[in-house]
Amino acid sequence: MIEYETADSPYVIPQYFAQWVETQPDRLCIVDHSLERKEMQWTFGQFAPVVSAMTRALYDAGIRAHDVVAIELPNNWEFVALTLATWNLGAVICPIMPIFREHEVRQIVFKTRAKLLVVPETFRHFAFTEMAHNLSQDFPDLRIWMRGGQEFPSLETMTRQTPDNEAPSASLPDYEDLAEIVFTSGTTGRPKGVMHSHKTLLRGLLIQRDFLHLGPDDVIFMPSPFAHQTGFLYGVLFPLLLGIPAIYQDIWNPDVALDLLSRRRATFSMGATPFFADLTTHYDPHRHDLSALKIFVSAGAPIPRVLVEEAQTLLNVHILAGWGMSENSLVTLVRPEDSLEKTYTTDGRPVPEMLCRVVNNNGRPLPPLIEGELEVKGPQNFIGYFDEPDITDQVFTQDGWLRTGDLALMDADGYIRITGRARDMINRGGEKIPVADVEDLLYRHPAIHEAALVGIKDERLGQRTCAVVVLHPGTTLSLPELLDYLNGWHLTKQFWPERLEIVAALPKTPSGKIQKFRLREWLNEGLDPHLSHFS
246 forms bridges with which residues in the sheet? Predict the structure, then answer.
């Protein structure tokens, strides 16, 4: 039996899965709840032959160690089976957001030199067949499998194993082999291919398991997309590591999510701010029972504290703020036992083995409560950007610290508060605007549903501030009304927004983070803020 009591355990995920198949074959493994097809579920024992058949199919398709398998699927059991099968052969997984279209997918396939691409026939009313045909013509060495449909090899047939078609012997990867290439979410510009080894992925999960006090009695609910690092790490890998049930939702719907959380007695979930904001809005104590839910981790920078307060008060769930990147998963986190003040006012302290420091423009560490750029160091940090060694060298210091590009404060207790992206900083005539504080007040306004504070060019001051907001249905707001509201909070006048833009929606990454650089392009250059973030 595999022991995983240390964070330096050299086992990989397929070995953990094999252990659970052997020791608890009748335990629930996966519940796949879809808004587009019938709910399905498996025990560990039932899922094992599915993984074996998928491994055989990948092997027969020519997939070998270090080959790249690109998966553009929603949250479902097929994604999990493909992950295990890919790693059984020592190959590399490249998750792709299912909302991406041919332009983005073409770039990823070309850049990673993927050997196989897996897509659905349809998802969310979009047909992938034309895209698949175009890619197959332009990439003759690329194999394409399709979930559903008749024009490409069917993913469903790959999971049917016969006695004469058993899985090949596993060619498990080494602990430090490349495991994943995941493309950054594009909050600041062109996405890059982040490379993780099995070690950098698993070290973080093992550390966080102990930090969050998770164990064999937990049940994970995951609505975040698997092609985003949150969904992949904490929805796909964490349940397989811990040997616990995973409940999946493929299309976000808060009413469905609340039903699943109640019915399946989920204890842990994680996602960006919009997820728990929607749960709070749609929660009905007469219909929903969230008494089993212990923790909801919201990792995003910055998180409007008013939403944390409302969700925790209404749902009686411990909302834990955290911070991390595709490059290193969760680095700082509020502990379940921390005071509410830390939950409301910080993004947590570094998890064990991860180091954080706040530095000035010269790279020198700053004292507590002085804003600077956050740098991190430790075993969760990624191993580089795919095919971009120059950029990799630029983001690491000579002594191994990762320059995150995030602005932060560290308090006397070592807790971090993310104050914004370095590129999102607003410098108005030499006065730095406390973006996170102003946005927190914007979110508290009864008419505002979502808000972002961005800088616009100004010849005299360098930058002025603009509040871009989405209003609640049926409400109105003018700039004088907003300024009167901020004056009521006694906010320094120099921090007030000098322009107000009301929009129907804010441009976001697939994981729900606001793309402020798109707003700046719109306000400063007139570019459409909702165009694809690939360039």
Answer: 30, 220
Bridge partners (DSSP) listed for residue 330: 324
| Inter-CA distances, 9 with 5, 13, 205, 236, 246, Å | 8, 11, 11, 19, 23
Structural domain contains residue 55: yes
- For residue 303, give both structure tokens: 């998180």
In residues, how long is the chain? 535
Residue 129 lies in a domain: yes
Cβ-contact 421, 407 below 8 angstroms: yes
Task: Name the CA dihedral angle for 260, 262, 267, 272, rounded to a multiple of 10 degrees.
Answer: 60
Assess if residue 172 is contained within a domain.
yes
> Helix, strand or coil for residue 85?
helix
The whole-angstrom separation of Cα 71 and Cα 155 is 12
Tokens 């004056």 sit on residue: 487
Residue 394 CB: number of other CB atoms within 10 A? Answer: 11
Q: What is the pLDDT of residue 190?
A: 63
Supply 205's token pair.
């999960």
CA atoms within 13 A on the CB side of 319: 30
Q: Which residues pair with 275 in a beta bridge?
A: none
The pLDDT assigned to 431 comes to: 67
Nearest one of 506, 512, 516, 350 to 433, comparing CA atoms: 516
167: DSSP letter: P
Which residue bears the tokens 């570094």? 350
- Token readout for 509 is 């990454």
Q: Provide the domain count of the chain.
A: 2
What is the C-alpha to C-alpha distance for residues 220 and 82, in angstroms, rounded to an integer? 20
The 3-state DSSP class for residue 41 equals strand
Which residue type occupies 145?
Answer: W
What is the structure's pLDDT at 534? 35
Residues with Cβ within 8 Å of 313's Cβ and at least 6 positions away in sequence, in order, are none
Angstrom distances, CA of residue 522 to CA of 62, 105, 452, 506, 507: 46, 25, 13, 11, 11
CATH number at residue 448: 3.30.300.30
Q: Any idea what DSSP says for residue 99?
A: T
Tell me what pLDDT residue 352 has.
Answer: 93
Is residue 300 in a domain?
no
pLDDT tens figures, 194-224: 999 999 999 999 999 988 999 999 999 999 9
Neighbours of 464 (CB within 10 A): 17
Dihedral of CA atoms 308, 312, 318, 323 in degrees, nearest 10, equals -10
Full DSSP string of 416-479: EEEEEEGGG--EETTEEP-HHHHHHHHHHSTTEEEEEEEEEEETTTEEEEEEEEEEPTT----H
d(CA 423, CA 509): 16
Q: Which residues have CB under 8 Å from 492's CB, separation 6+?
A: none
Amino acid code (one letter) for 254? P
CATH number at residue 12: 3.40.50.12780
pLDDT digits (tens, 9 = 90+) for 378-403: 999 999 999 999 999 999 999 999 99
pTM of structure: 0.82
pLDDT in tens, 82-132: 999 999 999 999 999 898 888 889 989 999 999 999 999 999 989 999 999
